[in-house]
UniProtKB/TrEMBL annotation:
Gene3D superfamilies on file: Medium-chain alcohol dehydrogenases, catalytic domain, NAD(P)-binding Rossmann-like Domain
InterPro entries per record: ADH-like_C, ADH_N_2, ER, GroES-like_sf, MDR_fam, NAD(P)-bd_dom_sf
Protein name (Swiss-Prot/TrEMBL): Alcohol dehydrogenase superfamily, zinc-type
All copies of domain Enoyl reductase (ER), residue ranges: 15-337
Molecular-function GO terms, alphabetical: oxidoreductase activity, acting on the CH-CH group of donors, NAD or NADP as acceptor
PANTHER family: OS06G0602900 PROTEIN, PROSTAGLANDIN REDUCTASE
SUPFAM superfamilies reported for this sequence: GroES-like, NAD(P)-binding Rossmann-fold domains
Top-level taxon of origin: Eukaryota
Keyword Oxidoreductase: yes
Organism: Trema orientale (Charcoal tree)
The keyword Acetylation appears for this protein: no
Length: 342
């Protein structure tokens, strides 16, 4: 079984030489009653948070807070879709399609406790179950509706808006009746947001020398909701432009993951005087909203009133580059690696 791992702990932006492909012997069977499952991996998710698991932590700190640390050589667990090859767990049979925490490898051997469920593709591509029907979709849905608590007509700003989570947040917000502006890192991404995904406006943050004045231009009446995917100076600029009782969903801070010196220092006095709520959240705490995500999404996808943008690379070898690309804005929409033709 070939799998991607890190050669060394990564501090800063990841690069190709930080990764290697290793292989280990694989037994394509599972002892009956053992609970073990062997899966052939089909699609794996490529997510920014994994970088936080790859950093150097002190020897006493075994976890990175959100998920366990990854050590060099280790098989890396990741969300994805797979097919059962062998199962000692009565819940799963050979050839079942499953979704859950699999690995950045050709096969996954799961033992003991694992997060996996049978997958009904509902007539959609299997990749949709990694993205829009996976954690990206749930993050966007729960983050917007539960964390931001929107009201119709409110003004919403989304950063990393053409990314996996961001492009869905903006569309849910538009469907709900909000005014939505997104920021993204290229003119092609800006065009996608405005022309295909129905954002009211969008801008390339790399072209803006002063983010505070840029947001003032796009939100002359202030921002009610900021869905923050990036942190750093964008968060500071958003706080400066928030309205009274504004809400900020702290979804992620990708610009800080590879550069701790960029950590945001929002003006706390503005937060006090404007009574702003900043709430961090993890999608995994909102699994109960999964049925709501489906009802808000399935029909719209079928009728074309909601779009999901996917960016799929093929083959195990493409995993390092796919992951590295997240930190350079190479991906448009949900980054996924397809492992086999199925
Ligand atoms: P994306 O698909 O948005 O990919 C990352 C994007 O971030 C890139 O394409 C790039 O777009 C942008 N980016 C990269 N570096 C920077 C930077 N230095 N400054 C500004 N933008 C940058 O990833 P996801 O949608 O999967 O994740 C988005 C955020 O949500 C991340 O912070 C992630 O950790 C978080 N997240 C949180 C979850 C939760 O449960 N709270 C669950 C899933 C994700 P561009 O071209 O616009 O720069």
């Amino acid at each position: 079984n070939r799998y991607v791992t890190i050669k060394t702990q990564i501090n800063g932006k990841p690069k190709e030489s930080d990764f290697e492909i290793k292989s280990s012997p694989l037994v394509l069977s599972a002892e009956p009653g053992s609970n073990d499952v062997v899966l052939k991996n089909l699609y794996v998710s490529i997510d920014p948070y994994q970088i936080n698991r790859m950093k150097t932590y002190s020897s006493t700190q075994k976890t990175s807070g959100y998920a366990t640390a990854i050590t060099p050589g280790q098989v890396i667990d990741a969300y994805g879709v797979a097919k059962v090859v062998a199962s000692g767990n009565p819940e799963f049979e050979k050839d079942d399609l499953v979704v859950g925490m699999i690995t950045w490898g050709e096969y996954s051997v799961l033992k003991g406790q694992y997060i996996l469920r049978k997958l009904d593709p509902m007539g959609f591509s299997l990749s949709y179950h990694v993205g829009i029907f996976g954690f990206s979709g749930l993050t966007a849905y729960a983050g917007f509706f539960e964390v931001c608590k929107p009201k119709k007509g409110e003004k919403v700003f989304v950063s990393a808006a053409s990314g996996s989570v961001g492009h869905l947040v903006g569309q849910y917000a538009k469907h709900f009746g909000c005014y939505v502006v997104g920021s993204a890192g290229s003119k092609e991404k800006v065009a996608l947001l405005k022309d295909k995904l129905g954002f009211d406006d969008a801008f390339n943050y790399k072209d803006e020398p002063d983010l505070k004045s840029a947001l003032k231009k796009y939100f002359p009446d202030g921002i009610d909701i900021y869905f923050d995917n990036v942190g750093a100076e964008m968060l500071e600029a958003a706080v400066a432009n928030m309205n009274t009782f504004g809400r900020i969903a702290a979804c992620g801070v990708i610009s800080e993951y590879t550069d701790a010196s960029k950590r945001a220092a929002p003006d706390m006095l503005e937060i006090v005087y404007k009574k702003i709520t900043i709430r961090g959240f993890l999608a995994e705490d909102f699994m109960n909203l999964y049925p709501d995500l489906l009802s808000a999404t399935v029909d719209h996808l079928r009728t074309g009133t909601l779009h999901t943008v996917e960016d799929i690379s093929t083959g195990l070898e493409s995993i390092p580059q796919a992951f590295i690309g997240l930190f350079h804005g190479s991906n448009v929409g949900k980054k996924i690696v397809k492992l086999v033709d199925e």
